[in-house]
Design goal:
The chain is mainly alpha-helical. The protein has helices at 2-22, 34-66, 74-129, 152-160, 170-183, and strands at residues 143-145, 148-150. Helices cover 68% and strands 3% of the residues. The chain has a two-stranded antiparallel ribbon with strand order 1-2. It is rod-shaped. The termini are far apart.
Length: 197
């Protein structure tokens, strides 16, 4: 694909240069050089656009010299060459930047669309669970999920992608302190079941 873009850019530039060289300076084709520059910057990136801009200013300078464009001072010829070089390079750079920015924008739009699809899928799953009854074991507090019984943590992680962690609420702290005061500091359960009397 890039090889075809290179061929198209420089083929168009060659045709334009040939036309510019065979005409007089009264027929100005300067603006047409922007076509291969923009095409090259868009299809080939910053360096491709820069190459097209460099070749364009060379072709324009040669055509300007061959058509014997009269200048009152040589300085004006070089000034015009510098102005054309600056304009061509700027257009090539801006074209490449615009193409790159659009590519990034398309990538972000695709990522956003994918995220929205995931949110919609999760929302649909949550809505499917609304208003349904879940069987909970009266003894183990496990939840029936199909043919198996799983914990609440497993159920939330499996269906809602929620992972739980454990802490101690103020009420739990009060109960723990009260139990510790009643049983004493040495009433902790043994770590080895064989030590249980």
């Amino acid at each position: 694909m890039k090889a075809l873009a290179w061929i198209a850019s420089f083929g168009l530039l060659a045709l334009l240069a040939a036309a510019d060289w065979t005409t007089t300076y009264e027929l100005n084709l300067t603006a047409l050089y922007y076509v291969p520059i923009v095409f090259g910057g868009w299809m080939l990136g910053r360096w491709g656009g820069a190459a097209c801009a460099l070749c364009s200013i060379v072709c324009w300078s040669v055509a300007d010299y061959r058509t014997a464009h009269p200048y009152s001072e040589p300085f004006f010829r070089y000034w015009n060459i510098g102005m054309h070089a600056f304009a061509y390079a700027l257009v090539a750079y801006l074209t490449a930047r615009l193409h790159s920015a659009l590519a990034v924008a398309r990538l972000h739009a695709a990522e956003k669309q994918e995220a929205l699809q995931r949110v919609e899928a999760a929302t649909a799953e949550v809505r499917a669970m609304e208003g349904t009854f879940q069987t909970v074991c009266s003894w183990t507090q496990k939840i029936r999920d199909g043919d198996e019984w799983i914990t609440l943590e497993e159920y939330l992680e499996r269906h809602l992608k929620i992972r739980l962690t454990h802490g101690m609420s103020p009420e739990g702290q009060r109960i723990f302190r009260a139990a510790s005061e009643v049983s004493g500091p040495l009433a902790a359960a043994p770590s080895d079941p064989k030590q249980t009397p």
